[in-house]
Amino acid sequence: MKKILLCITAFCACVTFNEVAAQTSIYTQNFESGMPATWHQQAATQETNLGWKVGLNMGSGTLGGGGYVPAHTHYAYVNDYDNNTTNHSNKDSLYTQSIDMSTYTHVFISFDYLFWQNYNVVPGDLEQFTLAYSSNGGTSWTMLDSLGGTSIWNTRTFDISSVAGKSNIMLCFAYTNGGKQGYMACLDNVNIYEPEALDLGVTAMPLNYYLQKNRPYTISGTVHNYGSTIVTTMNVKYSINGGAAVATTISSPLWLQGLANCPYSIPTPWTPTTAGTYTVKAWTDNPNGSADQAHANDTLTTTVQVLDSVIDKFPLFEEFNQASCDPCAQATPHLDSILSQSQSICNAVRYHVSWPGQDFMNQVTNGPFVGPRVSYYSVSGVPDAKLDGSTDVYPGGITVDQIITEAHKGSPFQIDITSSTYNAVTNTYNVAASITAYGAMPTGLRAFAALTVDTITYMANQSTESIPQFVFPQVVEDMMPSSAGTALTAFTSGQTQPLNLTWVKNHPWGASPAVHLYDSTSTFHVTIWVQSNTSKYVYQSASYPRAAASTLGIVEQPELLNTIRVYPNPNNGDATISFELKQDANVKLDIFNSMGQLIRSTNKGNQSSGTHLMNLDGQDLPSGMYFINITAGGHTVSKKVSIIR
User: Fold this and answer.
1) Rounded-to-integer distance, Cα 85 and Cα 47, Å
2) Is the N or C terminus of the chain more exposed, i.e. has fewer CB atoms within 10 Å?
3) Contact (Cβ atoms closer than 8 angstroms) between residue 631 and residue 590
């Protein structure tokens, strides 16, 4: 195998283990020299179908895929989405050469694969990626397994001992698109081998990287049977910094078959009493009362950092999307639902990029920070997202459990946003915050801050593709002081560093606002996070959720009123105001200028519950910023409006 997982960076436990068990090799193929001459494939059923190929990275044109496949050196792939735009039915089967397995009693196969089964798939698609074998030269085939979808490279291992003792075995990797436009399948590092009989190893020890001193931690996780023999008893042990082993024996009702996993938990916990960095090692031995036959994969080693205090973690979700992007539109309903369910434990910001079509929100933000942020993460396609900076997630597939898992990691940092204000006279946003570390943290970290508009709603469809898009939440409009963030010095435990940020608004929320009309909420969020420029990991985030202080002292109280909207906004003084009453009430409309002076007041009398429309009628007002206050039953909602002539 070419890829052996050695370390997960320091934001979670750093683990080391040997991924490959001892074995007798039967056949390997890593595609480093291209498609093997001894392999063959089913002929393409349509001329738009290019069949299986070998490449380094999917790009564009004949490789296709738009750069969505992570680098994996050379690999075999079939790309249906880019190369089958007419939705023809294709079954792209890749066959190995004939392999002699007559001298083996047990046979396993492992391989790396990526199968974007559900990514941008036309409804009704029945994509499949399957593994099958033939023992008669391809006359008939027996399916071994169906491979599930995965947007990252995964390694799968199967027991295919049904082919052991046979001399003429061919394997088939078959991608079927179900007669529609599917997406892609990728294959690498095919390894067929005979395993050892007794071969165990610890493969999981889910300790968080940050632990708190004077708290007990149970060492537990997963043991994997790499061998071919069923294991009924074993020892599992752990040690701290190379010290004495703490052990337990697992037996009845253990019945661990080859390639299966079982949980372990060592009854004696570890309680660290001093802050610092520790190495925790867990391993197995004595399977079935005998010696393990391959010691290289017995042990899992984890590095953790013990802190004086572990702070609750608020993960950061960063999405890259576009107003003219059908996959973005398809992913948005799911993502909105997940973020809504997670809003109490997760902060979210959404950047609008410059491709594939027009996006007027991007046109005013690309140069200052969106372009640099795209380069920061090497984003090459949308929709794309990062969870805490270092984890790639697909917006249409992220789950609440993923966010909860990230939140449970804890953090060494506490971020307190002490104030966040907007001055309507000077058009200035001011933010003050403090960042406190509860463990020694090195230099090289940075604090980033983003100002987001809660919702921007366009009056007309913004997409140049097939799915209309009107409403855009959590739109990033500025990064303070810039996309480079603020450098933080090294922390000692308990040390606090201040953060004071200012931004004078220098652009509308969207380009060409007099033509491409939109309405935006009167509230903004400021989100601050601490991030490593090296690993891209986000250690902590915080958000200031209060409405901007531009409401002239008026507090939004939605008992009777829902948030008002103005179309268009900006406008030339001729606009429509919409609002919703939850019950009958007397309604008054007030207009203030940017100095807070009341320049117009109109009593609309008693209005019934439901949605109402009224004219702004401000054609006599000069260009500038105004505030529309609607009062119903003593409750007021304020809306900022720009008049441009």
Assistant:
1) 11
2) C
3) yes
The region, left, alpha or beta by phi > 0 then psi within -120 to 50, assigned to residue 103 is alpha
Between strands 75-79 and 261-265, the pairing is unpaired
For 75-114, the pLDDT digits (tens) are 998 887 666 666 666 778 999 999 999 999 999 999 999 8
Per the domain annotation, does 7 fall within a domain? no
Tally helices (H) and strands (E) across the chain: 5, 40
Who has greater pLDDT, 339 or 556? 339
First to last CA, the chain: 66
Q: How does pLDDT run across 153-178, given as a tens digit for each residue?
A: 899 999 999 999 999 999 999 988 77
Name the domain boundary from 195, 229, 255.
195
609 Cβ partners below 8 Å, 6+ apart?
Answer: 581, 582, 583, 584
Q: pTM of the entire structure?
A: 0.71
| 330 & 301 share domain | no
| Boundaries of domain holding 160 | 23-195
Lookup: tokens for 232: 């009924």
What per-residue confidence (pLDDT) applies to 384?
A: 94
Q: Which of 282, 280, 285, 326 is nearest to 305 (CA)?
A: 280
CA dihedral 323, 324, 330, 336 (to 10 degrees): 0
Residue of 526, 475, 530 whose CA lies nearest to 501:
526
User: What percent helix, strand, coil does the chain show, rounded to 5?
Assistant: 10, 45, 45
Give the 3-state secondary structure of residue 110. strand
The per-residue pLDDT for 124 is: 56
**Sign, CA torsion 325/328/329/330:** positive
Residue 209, C-beta contacts closer than 8 angstroms, at least 6 positions apart: 10, 11, 12, 13, 14, 303, 304, 305, 409
Dihedral, CA atoms, 491, 405, 259, 195, nearest 10 degrees?
Answer: -20
By DSSP bridging, strand 316-321 and strand 384-387 are antiparallel
* One domain, residues 105 and 207: no
Instruction: Return the exposure string of 160-171: e unless at least 16 CB atoms fall within 10 Å of the residue's CB, then b.
Output: bbebbebeebbb
Position 619 pLDDT exceeds 90: no
Which tokens belong to 27? Answer: 């056949």
Contact (Cβ atoms closer than 8 angstroms) between residue 110 and residue 195: no
Between residues 152 and 137, the one the model is more confident about: 137
